[in-house]
Amino acid sequence: MGENDDRVGEHDSGMSEGEQSSKGRSRRGLLALLAAGTVGAGLGVAALSERFDGEGDSPPGAGTDERSENTSASESDEPSETTGTDEPSATTATTSGLTETGTPTTDTPSQTDTPTTDDATGAETSTESDTSSGTGAATDTETRSETGTESETSTETGASTTATPAESGTETAATDAPPETDAPEGTETPTTTDTETSTGPASQWRSETPLPLAHSDAGGGVVDGRLLYFGGFDSGVDTNAVAQTFTYEPAEAGEGTWTRVEDLPKAVWGPCGVTVENRVYSFGGVSNPAEGENEPTDDIFVYESGEGWRNLTAESGVRCPYPNWAMGGIYDPESRLVYCVGGGTGDTDAETATNHGTGGTTHWSFDEHRLWTFDPEAEEVVDDSLAQLPEAKRWPTVARVVVDGRTKIHALGGVKSTAGSTDSNFRYDPVDDEWEAATPTPIPGHYATTDNPVIDNQLYLSHGLFRENGESLSVDSFRSFCHRYDPVADEFDTSLPDEGTPRVGCVDAVIDGRLYTVAGHVKRYDQQGYHDCMSVSSSFEP
After folding, report:
1. CB 386 within 8 A of CB 433
2. Are 107 and 76 in contact (CB under 8 A)?
3. Closest among 174, 164, 122 to 145, alpha carbons compared
4. Which three-class secondary structure state does DSSP give residue 352?
């Protein structure tokens, strides 16, 4: 407070001359006794304390080292009665994270705090210091770290943990201070701010070996404990599909190995990859014809370890029910069927297709409501007319979970062509062939983890492209956060740590309890819609 900034001798104008004279005589008398050595420091303090107690003031400098009248030391009185000085009193601990060093006293706190900010932690600290000149001058320092916690902390040196400061300022600063205690001037001040999330202290993202090429919107799956990455497109304004296929073998500390394997039978981006035991199926995707625009396909391929790719469409004529891209799919081990749902569609005349009222006429404007099944053993489509997804959309996160002992298939988030993002979350029961609405996603958009990102029956939804309230798309629409969805409680947890690299179009896979996210892109809308692809790879362990 401003009234405590005055030095000794600059007294409140409201004090009477008698009061000033009386106090002056008391100080001079005590100092004379101390100088002569006839009275101990304790008696001098007691006398001074008695004098000021009678006037309702706190004894200046009680419990501190000896001072001469001509030192520059500040003496702080009770702010309600007199103007204070620069010298703070050593006070009791009253706030969270407060640790005091110095000689104990019974004074109330002096209001001379000078707030500063710790560069390392961002915690606001308030430092009070007493600086004296001459031999034997004492320095009392009080630092308060305000970190938002509610517990009280004080140094444990035999003093009360909440009401009495440490007995020895020197020993406390050197050995007994807890982690919240002040660091020496010029060093970082540790705080007790809790940085753990609800996922526990072990929850973390780590970097993985980058993909050899910068790609996005590929298909993915898991074969022999390795992540399979296939197709996609590379950087550019146009989305030119590629056929490259890679496998990633995870290793400790994220130092896994990428291996180039046989290319896809056809270059496509946006295919639906589904893992079935030790095989990965590729459904649909957008191809690049020699002439004309990119077109969605209805091709079905399968990759097997040691065998490479097979083109099932070329072998047997089996096809998806409609040309598609950005479709979601999942394998259900109970029924031993693959379920595929939604996606953009090339069958714009189908009754199950919609442009969401946008007026668009090309396949880029249409999405599908259809849910259909594929038998991986017979390698054929089983049923293409199951209960329709209530909202047609592309890029949904599709996942299989168990609720009340029954298999459920979720389709969360997604995009409704040019109509914008959606936060819808629908749950399908394969036995009843029915959809029901579940809790919407925390923010409209499509997550980059679309391929069954399930660990311990919990969905982990990370990265993606999101927009609210019809806002225009920009590079800021790309995010890197991670959400968790509990299908049993039907609720989301948004407190998980952020990976830090905004992107969409990743390939995701769960291997040994870790969620892997590979590559992706951001779109530079101010650069003619340039797709800026990346090779970054990371993984998350709950």
Report:
1. yes
2. yes
3. 122
4. coil
How far does CA 169 lie from the centroid of its chain?
39
Mean pLDDT value of segment 272-297: 91
Beta-bridge mates of residue 440: none
Answer yes or no: is pLDDT of 372 > 70: yes
Residue with tokens 């005055």: 6
Q: What pLDDT does residue 203 have?
A: 66
* pLDDT of the residue at 471: 84
Question: Which residues, 6+ apart, have CB-to-CB distance to 377 below 8 Å?
Answer: 336
Q: Which residues contact 40 (CB under 8 A, 6 or more apart)?
A: none
Q: Which of 396, 532, 540, 527 is nearest to 480 (CA)?
A: 540
Nearest by Cα to 395 from 316, 460, 355, 448: 448
Please indicate whether residue 57 or residue 333 has the higher confidence score (pLDDT): 333
Decide: 146 and 124 in contact? Cβ < 8 Å. Answer: yes
The pLDDT tens digits for 437-457 are 999 999 999 999 999 999 999
CA-CA distance, 270 to 393, in Å (whole number)?
Answer: 14
41 and 61 Cβ atoms separated by less than 8 Å: no
DSSP string, 134-178: STT----EEEEEE-S--------SSS-TTTS--S-HHHIIIII--
Q: Which residue has the tokens 């799919």?
A: 329
**Packing angle between helix 17-36 and helix 41-53, nearest 10 degrees?**
170
Percent of the chain with pLDDT over 70: 62
**pLDDT, greater one: 213 or 37:** 213
Q: How far apart are CA 64 and CA 387, in angstroms?
A: 83
C-beta of residue 465 within 8 angstroms of C-beta of residue 481? no
Q: CB neighbours of 57 closer than 8 A, spacing ≥ 6?
A: 77, 78, 81, 82
pTM for the full model?
0.65
